[in-house]
Amino acid sequence: ALLPYVPRVPPAALPGKVTATTFALEMPRCVFDCHANASDTVWLVVACANASSAFKNPPSRADVPPYERLPTACAYMTLGMAAAAFACSAPGPALLRVGGDTACRGQGGQDPCNGPLPSPGPYRVKFLVMGCHGPKAETRWSDPILLRRGTGGTAVPTP
């Protein structure tokens, strides 16, 4: 199912450090409640803006594109979380930090990782609900997100 939700960078100033390799997204609460069950995982897909139209949803968890593929494939998936984390009643932060795990570059493994973004972008993101038999629902792609290097790395949607 294609959901009408569009991921977005919060319009207000963000608490905490934002760098030239990370950005924050609003947490999509209540978006997946009718489309996911307790065993499903919600993934964040990060793609270079010019590669988002070519991205194909993986048919299974084993086919999730890892962080290491970003430089060549211009897309990867990260922040795989239980669908319950996105429920209306779920406790937790109102923001998701994208690119915040600096240990990804040295991990050498193929596991999905929320690693630093290698360029200012622009990037597009979407959320994908994966069940045990593959994709179940997805949001629309975000507007392009560009990291501003000269201003502390604040991420903003491109005009």
From TrEMBL:
InterPro entries assigned to the protein according to its UniProt record, in alphabetical order: Uroplakin-3 (IPR024831)
Positions in coiled-coil regions: none
Full protein name: UPK3B protein
GO cellular component: membrane
Natural source organism: Syrrhaptes paradoxus (Pallas's sandgrouse)
Highest taxon listed in the record's lineage: Eukaryota
